[in-house]
Design a protein that fits this description.
Blueprint (H helix, E strand, L loop, with lengths): L1 E5 L8 H14 L4 E5 L5 H5 L11 H5 L10 E2 L5 E4 L8 H5 L8 H6 L8 E5 L6 H9 L2 E7 L2 H21 L4 E8 L6 H14 L12 H5 L7 H4 L4 H15 L11
Parallel strand pairs: 1-5, 1-6, 2-4, 2-5, 6-7
Antiparallel strand pairs: 3-4
């Protein structure tokens, strides 16, 4: 069983798109998968069709102690995929837990009784470095970092890795790097080629072989309430995420990748 947190300090890099479609792809490989929406914006919840009513239990209720973990797990359109939705109240959680002891361990403790029911837990996170992201890193076995094929995203990756290492050393020493995923890759653009070349040079085996292309369906699928790998499995974006899931499954027996800036 493995918990993978998908994290990025920069918004718009394909983080939530990756969380949704990686989780759904693993489910299509018949791995029992749980998608945890840890982002108060709730885009992952919306993208898999979980439009919650006000009286429904969400991650907020479990983190604040008013619901049990099993009470917030929801079914999705895929047999092997379950989800824990976010809700608008999740915006309040950082203030509510600010003075709590061991607040960094809340998500890990919440997920512990659920782990035996799943092969993979995929956690989507806010584009920040607040307490929810810290919780996601502490709860994870590995982290996956989407890297948008743009200069500034590449330039800031080293600094972000240093922040992740700080959290790892303080709260989760066994944390490893699942990999760095290049997103929004444009095959006809020199910049995308240069970013890929430099990333492979500096991060070597930490870069996934799979790259996620720029694809109109990847921008539109969320509004349909289904993962792209379900809504339009034949498109290049869906095919890329199925390949990513296959690569992660194939790498399970390989050597663990340490996190270094």
């Amino acid at each position: 069983m493995k918990t993978i947190s998908i994290i990025s300090q920069k918004g718009g890099v394909g983080k939530t798109t990756t969380a949704i479609n990686l989780a759904a792809s693993l489910a299509l490989y018949k791995r029992k998968t749980l998608l945890v929406d840890c982002d108060p914006q709730g885009c992952a919840s919306y993208g898999i069709g979980l439009i919650r009513k006000k009286n429904d239990k969400t991650l907020f209720h479990a983190l604040s102690g008013t619901a049990l973990p099993k009470e917030i797990v929801a079914n999705t359109c895929l047999e092997f995929l379950k989800a824990i939705p976010a809700g608008e109240q999740l915006f309040q959680i950082e203030l509510r837990i600010a003075s709590m002891k061991n607040r960094e361990l809340l998500l890990r403790n919440l997920l512990t009784p659920l782990k035996s029911s799943f092969d993979y837990i995929i956690i989507d996170t806010p584009a920040s470095m607040g307490i929810l992201v810290v919780n996601a890193i502490v709860a994870a076995d590995t982290v996956l970092l989407p890297l948008q094929c743009e200069f500034m995203a590449y330039k800031t990756l080293h600094q972000y890795l240093k922040t992740v290492i700080f959290i790892k050393d303080k709260f989760n020493p066994s944390l490893t790097l699942e990999g760095i995923l290049l997103t929004m890759y444009n095959m006809g653009e020199d910049l995308s080629h240069n970013i890929l070349e430099n990333a492979n040079k500096h991060f070597k085996k930490k870069i996934f072989n799979t790259v996620i292309p720029r694809n109109i369906q990847l921008r539109e699928f969320v509004s349909n309430g289904k993962p792209l790998v379900v809504y339009d499995r034949q498109c290049i974006g869906a095919d890329s995420y199925l390949k990513l899931a296959g690569e992660i499954l194939a790498n399970e027996k390989n050597k663990i990748t340490t996190i270094k800036p």
